[in-house]
Design brief:
The chain is of the alpha+beta class. It folds into 2 domains: about 220 residues, no CATH class; about 140 residues, no CATH class. The protein contains 13 helices and 10 strands. The protein has a 7-stranded antiparallel beta sheet. A 3-stranded antiparallel beta sheet has the order 7-8-9. Strand 2 and strand 3 form a beta hairpin. The longest helix has 23 residues.
Length: about 400
């Protein structure tokens, strides 16, 4: 072990023992800053990261407090992840180790040094150390309301540990959580497609500017407009690491949701034309469309009723990824392209009305649907209408 690392190790042990006994006093040269990390390529890193840095040159102390730690190997991790019962942990590490990770991932790290008096620095530092104790460090993670950025927001905000902070009126951009998520994900990506599929109407309500700060970038921006005793809260900002230019990765056209969505629509139009000009009834194609709708509804129902993911409730995607599609499958299997019965037509008519309601729901603003859903919805609608109105596309 190198001498400086050995010294830092001793400092860590000393601090832990001292803080467990009493509040620790930083020197007058100490500084506390907020780190904002650039988004990464993995989905869980797509929205960036926030952490707190505590420096004290007199103690040769340079520590990061990180509320974004989770353990893939924890018991039942994946089960709890699916159910929305995530436990995150406050981690503590050397700044050099933290920065090295982001240098290896080529992700910029911006640092904002806070203008705090000695009492505020001591109070915040001791809170973090006590919060790091094994009995305190775990917390119930919530992506929108209790994450690495909101933890920091609540520590230094209006009712936090730092006295004298004044919040200047921020411009209300009238954004929803869905809008904010979309800013960090590519428009034609499976990540955004899947998120828009899973999240319900609750994320389409306009949120207050303070709630934007679940995203590290907005937390960083909010710090710039805070004042403390008439002076800017951010005393100094700098780049701890600035990422190198990254090559643009062009996703192949055939692997995008746009290609898949319009392919389904085009195939539906082609099959309809074949039926019209040849007189063949390709009713088995309906099994694919209605089967996808039915299976998709099971996923949405599971997320709504069997998990703790509150943003997945009240999901109007169930209008087109609908349990009603199971009845449509039954109709297709029973009729095999022949004329449906009266009750079967009524069942199909209900499904047509459900599908027709999706653009209305979108237009009114009750829930916003991904534009790439509509070609698929249109395809299902075109295969449902003949069953509802006894219309035969064959000459």
């Amino acid at each position: 072990m190198k001498p400086n690392l050995f010294h830092n190790f001793l400092v860590f042990v000393f601090l832990t023992l001292q803080i467990q006994a009493q509040d620790f006093k930083l020197s007058e040269y100490a500084a506390i800053s907020i780190l904002t990390c650039e988004p990464g390529t993995d989905l869980y890193a797509s929205f960036g990261h926030s952490a707190i840095r505590v420096q004290d040159p007199m103690m040769q102390l340079d520590i990061i407090y990180n509320y974004g730690i989770f353990d893939f190997y924890a018991p039942n991790f994946y089960t709890n992840f699916i159910k929305g019962k995530l436990t995150y942990t406050l981690g503590r590490q050397y700044f050099s180790d933290f920065l090295f990770e982001y240098e290896m991932e080529n992700r910029s790290v911006k640092e904002q040094v806070l203008r705090l008096d000695k009492n505020s620095r001591d109070r915040l530092f001791n809170f973090l150390e006590k919060n790091y104790r094994p009995e305190n460090r775990d917390y119930a993670y919530d992506f929108f309301f209790n994450n690495c950025a909101t933890k920091i927001r609540d520590l230094i905000g209006e009712n936090g540990l730092i006295s004298g902070i004044q919040i200047n009126q921020a411009t209300d951009l009238k954004k929803t959580f869905r809008d904010l998520l979309s800013e960090n994900l590519a428009a034609n990506s499976w990540a955004l497609f899947g998120i828009n599929l899973a999240l319900g109407a609750k994320v389409d309500k306009i949120v207050a500017p303070r709630e934007y700060q679940f995203l590290p970038t907005y937390l960083s921006e909010s710090l710039e407009i805070l004042t403390i005793r008439g002076l800017p809260l951010v005393e100094n900002d700098r780049m701890s690491y600035e990422s190198k230019p990254k090559p643009k990765i062009q996703e192949g056209l055939y692997s995008t949701p746009a290609f898949t969505s319009f392919l389904i629509l085009i195939l539906t139009l082609i099959i309809g034309a074949i039926e019209y000009f040849t007189g063949k009834k390709l009713w088995s194609f309906n099994l694919i469309l209605f089967g996808l709708s039915a299976l998709g509804s099971l996923l949405l129902l599971f997320l709504w009723f069997l998990t703790d993911h509150h943003p997945t409730v009240h999901n109007f995607n169930l209008l087109w990824l609908s349990p009603w599609a199971f009845l449509m499958l039954w109709i297709n299997i029973k009729t095999r392209g022949n004329k449906p019965t009266k009750i079967q037509r009524y069942i199909a008519l209900v499904f047509v009305l459900l599908l027709s309601a999706t653009p209305v729901i979108h237009w009114i603003g009750i829930q916003k649907f991904d534009p790439l859903f509509f070609p698929i919805i249109g395809a299902i609608w075109m295969r449902s209408v003949p069953l509802a109105f006894q219309w035969n596309p064959v000459k």
